[in-house]
Design goal:
about 250 residues, alpha/beta, six-stranded parallel β-sheet, three-stranded antiparallel β-sheet, 9 strands, elongated, binds ligand BV8, binds zinc ion
Length: about 250
């Protein structure tokens, strides 16, 4: 494991020399905003794991329970703000402009709230609903009751989120692979790297010649495949990497 100071120095040099950059973020980047991750000690909701609730099967057998979970998360996220790590991502977009992309697995919308523009929300957004009957998709930040209904056809709404066993949006996947195959640098921040296809993205970029950096508080299955893995909180490490890189 390279010592942190040296790792930061190398990363800053790489960023200075790069002409484009991709960030691949997971729940860990929002942890310091107070949003529980999926698999940390605070990751359980009641006695359920995400895989048991975030699935079409769970929704068809118990839509009330799934909506209770999502409404609980919506209300929790509503009061949370972007943290220093999100702000550093905005600084990086200012530096790389249209050569910058965030591919996020998060559904909390905090990257956009912080001010990032080029954000690919691989797994959807918790503030959007989709009608299970007519397919209407709406952003809806109000407090939803249980089993919310579509304003157009009165069909049952679901969160506009990709559940386990559901395919990701083809167009978003195409956009993600396009930048992963051509970027100079990927910074993987706060993801356990176990959910596919996102778990393959770091390796895909590396195989195409990108310099891949990981920032995480602990080792992950992809720590051994990246070029530099820095142990630490996203809100502490990212600002160190970004500072004086914008000058
Ligand atoms: C697909 C939205 C194919 C939900 C999410 C069997 C049956 C069915 C499918 C499969 C199967 N086996 C494998 C699969 C594929 C499956 C999968 O990968 N399963 C896993 C469990 C093995 N994938 C899918 O089903 C995907 N679809 O494959 O479709 C297909 C094709 C055609 C037709 C039909 C189907 C869809 C997956 C999307 C699931 N939706 N999210 C919601 O949010 O409600 S997944 C959810 O968990 C996240 O979005 C993220 O993607 C994933 C992992 O979470 P992380 O973000 O990594 O968070 P985690 O808590 O795990 O880790 C946090 C990390 O941060 C840790 O490393 C921690 O150390 C670190 N950290 C904590 N604090 C900090 C920090 N780091 C830095 N600073 C800190 N302060
Ligand atoms: Zn409808």
């Amino acid at each position: 494991m390279m010592d942190k100071r040296n790792a930061i120095k190398i990363i800053k040099e790489k960023i200075k020399a790069a002409s484009n950059l991709v960030i691949l973020s997971g729940a860990g980047i929002s942890a310091e905003s107070g949003i529980p991750t999926f698999r940390g000690e605070d990751g359980l909701w009641k006695k359920y794991r995400a895989e048991e609730l975030a699935s079409p099967k769970a929704f068809s057998s118990n839509p009330e329970l799934v909506w209770e979970w999502y409404n609980w998360r919506r209300e929790l996220i509503r009061s949370k703000k972007p943290n220093q790590a999100h702000i550093s991502c905005v600084d990086l977009e200012k530096k790389f402009k249209d050569k910058f992309t965030i591919i996020t697995q998060n559904v909390d919308g905090l990257h956009q709230q912080a001010g990032n523009n080029n954000v690919i929300e691989l797994h959807g957004n918790i503030w959007k609903t989709r009608c299970t009957n007519c397919g209407d998709i709406k952003e809806n930040k109000s407090t939803l009751g249980n089993l919310p209904k579509c304003s157009i056809c009165n069909g049952l709404l679901r969160p506009h989120i990709v559940w386990f066993g559901e395919a990701l949006d083809e167009e978003l996947l195409y956009k993600a692979y396009k930048v992963l195959l051509s970027t100079d640098i990927v910074i993987v921040v706060g993801t356990s790297g176990i959910v596919y296809p996102a778990a393959q993205f770091a390796g895909t970029a590396k195989d195409s010649g990108a310099f891949v950096i990981e920032i995480d508080i602990k080792e992950t299955p992809q720590s051994s495949l990246v070029d530099v893995s820095v142990r630490g909180k996203a809100g502490e490490i990212l600002p160190l990497i970004v500072e004086s890189n914008n000058k």
